[in-house]
Amino acid sequence: xxxxxxxxxxxxxxxxxxxxxxxxxxxxxxxxxxxxxxxxxxxxxxxxxxxxxxxxxxxxxxxxxxxxxxxxxxxxxxxxxxxxxxxxxxxxxxxxxxxxxxxxxxxxxxxxxxxxxxxxxxxxxxxxxxxxxxxxxxxxxxxxxxxxxxxxxxxxxxxxxxxxxxxxxxxxxxxxxxxxxxxxxxxxxxx
Length: 191
Hints:
Oligomer: single chain
Structural class: mainly alpha
Largest sheet: none
Number of strands: 0
Order of helices and strands: HHHHHHHHHH
Radius of gyration: 23 Å
């Protein structure tokens, strides 16, 4: 059995007496390091469950990924799963861990968006708006994560009855990306 270089495998195991099962096992582990694939599988499976709305299953898989890697990269997704399950204390804990680790700006922004949503779910709209406003003020060059945050903030302004600020922010989004989500419709519906 030969696997090609293109597939990332480089080993030849003879079909004619490829050795003992132990030797085959050692060959596989030496040349096909499956152990480091476990994290990838857990992450992919967890994200798949998340996209399917299977929050508990996603938490299980992404929690295992988190334990194995000690990474904060899936904290926003973990937080959103907990938010969907109304586990707001866990959302807050994940947000604090993410904020303190301060990984890539887009990752922190996603975590902030989920935390703001959790606050809004609990009728703490003012705190949710304040959390997003602090960060939104410092945007110099808008990137996709800034637009996502602005969209959520505009939505919160609208929920809170501040139609003028919501409209202004939806228009700001459109100035940076005319096709962003339904921002054009939202802006026009606000006058």
